[in-house]
Amino acid sequence: MSLLVKICGLSTRETLEVALEAGADMVGFVFFSPSPRHLSLESARELGQQAKGRATKVALTVDADDATLENIAETLQPDLLQLHGKESIARVRDIKQKFGLPVMKVIAVETSADLAALPGYASVADRILFDARAPKGATRPGGLGTVFDWHVLEKLDLQLPFMVSGGLSANNVADAIRVTRAGGVDVSSGVESAPGVKDAELIRHFIRAARATEELMVR
After folding, report:
1. What CATH architecture applies to the domain 4-218?
2. CA of 40: how far to CAs of 35, 87, 167, in Å?
3. Catalytic residue selected from 8, 25, 66, 126
4. Where are the domains of the chain?
5. Res 48: pLDDT
6. Is 131 noted as a catalytic residue in this protein?
7. pLDDT digits 0-9 by tens, 136-169
8. 63 assigned to active site
9. Torsional sign, CA 101, 107, 112, 115
10. Residue 158: left (phi > 0), alpha (psi -120 to 50), or beta?
11. pLDDT grade for 135, boundaries at 50, 70 and 90
């Protein structure tokens, strides 16, 4: 199975087009007001139409209620819901059943102890995304440019597809893939010139670096 590359936090037609043309498998849209990448529903509708049929559209939410999820589902028409908050196992199950969409649950990682809840989430989610645990006092759970110790996942026995994120860039994505053997990588701040401002060349560079690593591992 080929490596999945996700560019998250896209918010303009121009940078979305760059990601799509460069070969991103997944494009992520953030619906969380404290984030500099937060997207309005009006923008989501437009970007969703642009990406339709060209990449998997991912809606990132943080402890969103049903009404919020319903608005996002209606306007973006996502292919996948990314739950980036403290959603319980039961809540993940309920969201999946209510909205009829695949769900990717994010698990914040700092030490191996953070994997304790993994079996429960793996039983209800369709995919897992391992992200760096946010520093204490942070106003949002991701997109902070923080890297976690990938060796925590080195001997992971998980039947479910999983991805890694957290401080990834073109410079370290190869190491992340080699250590974790993840089926996908997710980047946001690592392809930005400023918080929330995506850089076209950094997007292209990241995707090229991820693909080059994938080719080396297949050989």
Report:
1. Alpha-Beta Barrel (3.20)
2. 12, 22, 25
3. 8
4. 4-218
5. 98
6. yes
7. 665 555 556 779 999 999 889 898 999 999 999 9
8. no
9. negative
10. beta
11. low
